[in-house]
């Protein structure tokens, strides 16, 4: 009987050590209650400007992505709703995702391909006061291929500039 209790105690101790502490769990998920956390949401590039002023200014001034919805607005009257949704997927931020682009009227702050297109939804990063672990900092060309794939490269004459045009 004592041996059985010892085994149970050992299993419990091992299980408790393997589980993250509630404060660490809350930090990773953004949920202080330890329950299911809401997924990070898009907050818009202006939310980045306060801490990343130099990058924001450079992005706004030199990146084509910062003005990517202009071509969609020009072409919109000639496009079907399905074609327009295809444009929104690459020329806006977070289309179809929590906090992402809905329409030019409802979510103008997400109307271009902003910071979060590359760095991911920023709500957790912003809410934490800028915890770098809560945003994607290292980028790879493969992540660009959701929009900049072989078909679009031919169609739109895309030339990759991962480190030259963003910031």
Description:
This is Cytochrome c-552/4 domain-containing protein. Keywords: Signal. The protein is mainly α and 167 residues long. It folds into two domains: 37 residues, no CATH class; 118 residues, Orthogonal Bundle (Flavocytochrome C3, Chain A, domain 2), CATH 1.10.1130. It has ten helices and no strands. It is globular and about 45 Å long. The relative contact order is 0.13.
Lay out the secondary structure:
Elements: H1 2-18, H2 22-29, H3 46-49, H4 53-62, H5 69-75, H6 81-91, H7 115-119, H8 123-127, H9 141-144, H10 150-156
Q: In one word, what is the shape?
A: globular
By CATH, the topology of the largest domain is: Flavocytochrome C3, Chain A, domain 2
Low-pLDDT stretches? 4-30
Fourth CATH level, the homologous superfamily of the largest domain:
Flavocytochrome C3, Chain A
- Total tally of structural domains: 2
CATH architecture of the largest domain: Orthogonal Bundle
Structural class, from helix and strand content?
mainly alpha
- Got a strand count? 0
Residue share in helix: 40-55%
Q: C-alpha Rg, in Å? A: 22 Å
User: Total number of helical segments?
Assistant: 10
* Distance from first to last alpha carbon: 67 Å
Strand content: under 5%
CATH class of the largest domain: Mainly Alpha
Listing every helix as H and every strand as E from the N terminus to the C terminus, the arrangement reads HHHHHHHHHH
Largest sheet: none
Mean pLDDT: 79
């Amino acid at each position: 009987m004592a041996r059985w209790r010892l085994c149970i105690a050992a299993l419990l101790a091992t299980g408790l050590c393997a589980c993250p502490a509630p404060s660490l769990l809350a930090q990773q998920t953004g949920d202080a209650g330890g329950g299911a956390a809401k997924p990070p949401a898009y907050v818009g590039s202006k939310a980045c400007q306060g801490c990343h002023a130099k990058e924001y200014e450079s992005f706004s001034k030199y990146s084509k992505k910062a003005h990517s919805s202009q071509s969609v607005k020009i072409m919109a009257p000639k496009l079907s709703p399905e074609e327009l949704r295809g444009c929104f997927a690459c020329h806006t931020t977070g289309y179809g995702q929590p906090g992402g682009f809905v329409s030019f009227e409802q979510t103008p702050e997400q109307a271009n391909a902003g910071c979060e297109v590359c760095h991911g939804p920023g709500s957790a990063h912003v809410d934490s006061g800028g915890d770098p672990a809560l945003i994607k900092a290292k980028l790879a060309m493969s992540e660009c291929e959701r929009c900049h794939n072989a078909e679009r490269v031919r169609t739109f004459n895309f030339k990759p500039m991962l480190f030259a045009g963003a910031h």
